[in-house]
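User: Can you help me understand a structure? I only have the sequence.
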Amino acid sequence: MDISIGELSRRTGVKVPTIRYYEQVELMPAPPRTAGSQRRYGEAEVRRLSFIKHSRDLGFDVDAIRELLEMSSHPERPCAEVDLIARRHLVEVERRIDQLTALRGELNRMLADCGQGHVGECRVIETLSNHARCANEHH
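Assistant: Let's start by predicting it. Here is the structure, written out as tokens:
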């Protein structure tokens, strides 16, 4: 337990305020402190924070990460619950991809309709002013 919060940040690529936030929401355990009240971490915390960072990079929310961390502390359990969390997340990712695809289509359509004239005649402004002019209402 000889790693400072700054060193933990450097090793994992997680900013110091984010590490403190993860401690507040109990994704990271409260670390022991030195006599001068400085936080101290060990290799287990480096691994845990790396897991959290990678999970966040993949878009998992804090509650899902909390569940995954809990499950990872019981390696003898079947992984069906872990799979369920990952499948739920995949469904959400696919929903967002569909939404972004619709958004891209709408933006392309607005730009294609643009007459390159004056702002008063601009199809982009016109479409943004009236959602009914959109080709897809679910973007």
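Now, to help you interpret it: The radius of gyration is 23 Å. The CA atoms of residues 74 and 81 lie 12 Å apart. Let me know which part you'd like to focus on.
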